[in-house]
Amino acid sequence: MPKANDRLRQARERTASPTQPDECLSRQELADLVNAYVWHHHQRKVELDANYIGKLERGDIRWPSALYREALRVTLGASSDAALGFSNRRRTVVKLATVDRKQFLRTAALGVGSLALAPVAALLEGTQPTTAPARVGQTEIEQIHTAARVFAGWDHTYGGGLAREAVLAQLRFSADLLGANYPAKLHGPLHSAVGYLAHTCAFMAFDAYAHDDARRVFQFALACAEEAEDWHLRAKILSSMARQAIWIGKPDEGLTLTEHALVRSDRLTATERAMLHTAHARALAKMGRVRETLVAVGTADDHFTHSNPGNDASWMRYYDAAQHAGDTGHALFDIAVQGRSPAEATARLSTAVAGHTAAYARSRTISQIKLASLTMATGDPREAAVIGSAALDAAGTIRSNRAMDDLRELARYGQRHRSIPAVEALRHRITTLVVAR
Q1: Which is nearest to 31 in space by CA: 12, 14, 16, 44?
Q2: Which of 31, 97, 281, 316 has the most CB within a 10 Å radius?
Q3: Integer Cα distance of 292 and 68 in angstroms
Q4: Which residue range forms the structural domain that includes residue 181?
Q5: Same domain (yes/no): 73, 145
Q6: Do you know which InterPro entries this protein is assigned to (predicted)?
Q7: In a domain, 255, yes or no
């Protein structure tokens, strides 16, 4: 009897279904995703089915073709064939018991042809970490602000998936500066700068679904803001913490965080108050509290009419008319799909899509996906397919798990219209893109 491939089965069961996120990937869904991957990346039509996946999991087939192994690794997020329990029994294994492997890699890395094959860890071995200066001044504070702005700009344009490790390394270095010597007058500015960078790092982790990391770094950022007595940064951090809580299905926690942020709202700018009331509306909408959602959106609109960018800190520059329309549109989306008129949500999401510049490509794409979902759920599915296709064209450059989840939601809304060729083509494109990530 062949030995069952438990590693492959467990990897499949750890992976969420693209159409039923509360359930694991079925054998047939895994086969479909592999077929889609091979077609998208190699333009080859293959027809794996649940029966073939069953043979792999039972161990009847231990070494599928290279093309299938590649597709299965990507689909299931595996680092190697061995991680999926695949082994080639015909392969001859030669062990180099007496070779100093690290020294070999160092030597091999000197050759240009071998450079690409050497592990990154070996190439970087022995590098000396940057030592934090013993004394900190205004120059270092400005450098932290610059780093935060650069990474925040990257995040807004491309999402948090690619640069998260880089900003985390910068944050570790910057946090070390809090223990250095500096004039008393720089205590607040230094903590604010580090808190701003920490917020950027935490939001990128949230966007990449590293939720535990995001929560820890948000808490550190909040501690920095409160140490600095920076009410503006504190409001921004609490708003982002609320957004994460709402996103992961804890709207009551999000509601608490926004109300906490609104304590002494007289110290905040009109833009910051608009941002917080919008987050408040999004939490209420997720809880199905329709009347209160509408009141919160109206309050946010009132504050935004008094917005003056000249009064806002650098981290609030993103919150312009397009962002306000998109965020309030997201809140109204949730009550529209529950039966309320979708007209206002549609108008606001359309305004966001039209108003976002290239610098805020992720926000524009997410609003466009949401607009497609709203149209698919409440309007013309053919129009929704056109909107969704345009969003998919833009999504190719973005590494955001939030955007990918919104695409899965769009595919689910399109399921009941799958008899329409344009909708089914859109759903196929979504599946292919999700697999590629």
Answers
A1: 12
A2: 281
A3: 52
A4: 136-229
A5: no
A6: TPR-like_helical_dom_sf
A7: no
**Radius of gyration of the chain, Cα coordinates, nearest whole angstrom:** 25
Least confident stretch, 39-48, 121-130, 141-150, 372-381? 121-130
Q: What pLDDT is attached to residue 180? A: 85
| 8 Å CB contact between 232 and 199 | no
Looking up tokens 């008393």 gives 184
Give CA separation, 162 vs 89, 154, 155, 201, 315, in Å: 37, 9, 9, 12, 21
Total domains in the chain come to 2
Tell which residue, 203, 103, 105, has the closest CA to residue 151.
203
Residues 79 and 140 in one domain: no
In the prediction, which pLDDT does 386 show?
A: 96
pLDDT at 101: 40
Q: What are the CA-CA distances from residue 52 to residues 4, 8, 68 (Å)?
A: 14, 13, 11
43 in any annotated domain = yes
Cα gap 136→175, rounded to integer Å: 12
318 vs 123, residue with greater confidence: 318
Write the CA distances from 152 to 16, 73, 312, 329, 397, integer angstroms: 30, 31, 16, 23, 16
In percent, how much of the chain has pLDDT > 70? Answer: 87
